[in-house]
């Protein structure tokens, strides 16, 4: 039945939950419905896609795990050397591992197979292959998750709540 975007009382995205949990929050009066997709759970109760909490919740920063999937998402599935977008993407260590480069958000980027092979065990400078953008740690885990869902095209109703992060 799909996922539901939970907004804080301030209308900022807070998390993503199952429709069942969202319905419980609505029934308990802890949240209000903001968007629905026109489907009904039962008569008079549309299936929510976006809800908003009635009370503001403070959220601590949550670490985003350094995974292949997350690095590809940060780099928008684009080779950071030649802008190639496609299926056969790899991860490249900016400073090669053989030369002390670490596994980190700052040292790992998405690269196509061609660029990865071409660069080999050189730095971008040595290989004369400048990076399109300086790799950095994603700011907010929530925006990260939410944009992933919106980009997948599953939850278009969420789009207007995450504008600003999609263009970056
Ligand atoms: Zn490339």
From TrEMBL:
One of its GO terms (molecular function) is nucleic acid binding. It comes from the Bacteria. InterPro entries: HNH (IPR002711), HNH_nuc (IPR003615), NA-targeting_endonuclease (IPR052892). The keyword DNA damage does not apply. Transmembrane segments: none annotated. Keywords: Endonuclease, Hydrolase, Nuclease. Gene3D superfamilies: 1.10.30.50. The keyword Lyase does not apply. Residues 66-117 form the HNH nuclease domain. This is HNH endonuclease. It comes from Myxacorys almedinensis A.
